[in-house]
Structure formats: structure tokens, C-alpha cells
């Protein structure tokens, strides 16, 4: 009679498997956070954020998703600035997070 394999606790599996190998391979070239101000560093977009972005076509909602916990602070920072500043920030942020030309890619957003 076959005995069931013993399950190893998750903590014992830390650093084991291709998932962790991929993290090691990517760590040297992973995008850094976008440092907007001393207090606002927007981290790279997560898989969860990408899925949320696909669920809306609204530019403001997409930007809120990308900015995450910093959304209110960024909106306050640009509230009284000319719109050119906002659009320049959006282009620069998206180029940093998604690579140059991301606004021109299918699914990219010209205004965000």
C-alpha cells in the first residue's frame, strides 16, 4: 500500500523551485520604484494591478490602480499644477514602469 507523501511546511520550501530561481534571475534587472518625491516611491506594478487595469478603460481609475497607496498624495501634488505637468508625469511614469513606448502599444493609454 502506497503511503501519502509528507507535505513539507511552506517555510521549509522557501527558496526551493523554479519560482524562486526566476526571482533570483530577475532581481538584478528588476525595475526600481519610481521616486517621485522624497516621500513618494511608486513600486513596480504587480500581477494583481495588471489584472485590475484590464478591468477598466477609465484613465483616472487606471492611474489610481498604478499609483496604489500613493494615489491621493500624487493627486494632491499635481492638483494645482498645469495639465502639462500631469501628462509629462504620466508619460514618464509609464515609460519607467512599462518601458519606452508603452502608451503606443495596444492596450496602452495615451492620456495615462
Q: Helix and strand succession?
A: HEEHHHH
The class by helix and strand makeup works out as: mainly alpha
Q: If strands are numbered along the chain, what order do they take across the biggest sheet? A: 1-2
Contiguous uncertain segments of 5+ residues: 105-112
C-alpha geometry:
elongated
Description:
- The protein is mainly alpha-helical and about 110 residues long.
- Helix content is about 45%, strand content about 5%.
- It has five helices and two strands.
- The protein has helices spanning about 20-25, 45-55, 60-65, 70-80, 85-100; strands spanning about 35, 40.
- The protein has a two-stranded antiparallel sheet with strand order 1-2.
- A hairpin with a 5-residue loop joins strand 1 (about 35) and strand 2.
- Helix 2 packs antiparallel against helix 3.
- The radius of gyration is 19 Å and the shape is elongated.
- Residues about 105-110 have low confidence and may be disordered.
Amino acid at each position: 500500500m502506497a503511503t501519502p507523501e509528507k507535505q513539507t511546511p511552506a517555510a521549509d520550501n522557501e527558496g526551493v523551485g523554479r519560482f524562486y530561481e526566476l526571482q533570483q534571475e530577475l532581481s538584478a534587472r528588476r525595475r526600481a520604484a519610481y521616486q517621485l518625491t522624497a516621500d513618494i516611491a511608486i513600486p513596480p506594478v504587480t500581477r494583481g494591478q495588471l489584472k485590475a487595469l484590464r478591468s477598466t478603460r477609465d484613465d483616472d481609475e487606471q492611474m489610481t490602480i498604478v499609483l496604489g497607496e500613493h494615489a491621493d498624495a500624487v493627486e494632491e501634488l499635481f492638483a494645482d499644477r498645469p495639465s502639462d505637468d500631469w501628462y509629462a508625469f504620466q508619460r514618464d511614469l509609464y515609460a519607467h514602469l512599462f518601458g519606452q513606448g508603452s502608451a503606443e502599444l495596444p492596450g496602452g493609454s495615451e492620456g495615462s
